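At this stage, I wrote out one protein's amino acid sequence and its backbone structure tokens, and that material follows here:
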Amino acid sequence: MATQIFVNLPVKDLNQSIAFFTKLGYTFNPQFTDEKATCMIISDTIYVMLLTEPFFMSFTKKGIADTSQVNESIICLSVENRADVDSIVAKAVEAGGTISSEVQDYGFMYNHGFLDLDGHAWEYTYMDMAAMPQK
């Protein structure tokens, strides 16, 4: 069985978060969706659990990071090409997200990112391994 990853993120308004990520093209597993949480499907092995803040707090004794002040993490996902990087960031901004970083173009690698409605940092990257510099 392949290793799976479940990234857990606290959200203030679950319905708004679902609407936001739906506009980016993501779908959700109804088996793991209720008024407290949803399971956003990234791939066959990558999932993001969007948890209401009170529900998120039931899993930890630490507080929730104030994303207006600090970065808790940067979630970086690869895509098929540069156009896909630009497209998802544009969709995120149109849906209410904000640009978090300028485009980074290293020739072989192309990145761009946004903050979602709760300030979580997302980056999307395309890498052309054939063009990667050799050491």
In short: Residues 14 and 34 are 9 Å apart (CA to CA). Helices lie at 14-23, 53-57, 82-94. The chain has three helices and eight strands. The domain at 65-135 is CATH 3.10.180.10 (2,3-Dihydroxybiphenyl 1,2-Dioxygenase; domain 1).
